[in-house]
Model the fold of this input.
Amino acid sequence: MKKSKRVLSFLLAAFTMSFALAGCGGSSSDANENNVYKIGICQLVTHDALDAATKGFKEAVIEGLGEDNVEFLEQNAAGDNNTCTTIVNDFVSKDVDLMMANGTAALQAAANASMDIPILGTSITDYGVALEIDDFSGTVGGNISGTSDLAPLEDQAQMIIDLIPEANNVGILYCSAEPNSAYQVKIVKQYLEDKGLTVKEFAFSASSDVAQVAEAAASASDAIYIPTDNTAASCTETINNVVLPTKVPIIAGESGICKGCGIATLAISYEKLGQITGEMAVEILKDGKDISEMPIEYDKDTSKLYNKTICDELGIKIPDDYEELE
Done:
């Protein structure tokens, strides 16, 4: 879905919507003034980060619209892209007022399902990559906006050098089926190679491959980096069971992965990210804000976090400016 195709589709959809609304003499906000708003939530998979984003989203929507004025149709795709498609198509058939897509595959499915229902993504690293938009400027346009979970990748990469100074060979473990993971890998790999480290990618295509690929990464690496990756996040127990006995430390792209198998991360709050997304939903539904003009938003606050249990087991000393993961 290249930029030119999306722009044409959005223009056609916008024309159709404006014609319909002109005939009705009102807006979607007016039409729902005395009704309950139906919001479809499609979450790609269950893990701490996405769960927190959904929680924050619902809390912000309820605060902004009132608990009695919103109905959430919440579905979890259990990590399956095809299930995302089924879920969002069901939302479209039920004529929801807005869709929240939590995870890249959920956003891609929603974008393909509707060009008029407002769609807010969250837990998306890069919208240009996720939606195949060339020269992405920060605003998707059409019926899509949302929030990004992109953390300072070069700062995360530097954590490997700072916390594991003896590391010469770094393995990057990620799911090749997630385009946003590949985007992060490219940046982190380039940064570490520029610092003189040897970096090798270890990609798995599905959760069934995680243990085998993690074993290969651990045997060839002095340290491992795992980006913000939904499949990896749902398999942290498997990764930890394989990697921890080898004494190879893991730097994680987000707090959920760090809690499950890492020593440290530079992380954002996914609950806050969800809250920002929920506030955007309120602006669209209650205040009539034009989603096509809403830029992607970020949680600009980051925290240095560490996993005390794993650090103690590996004998890694963490600087005082890190906060212990709860």
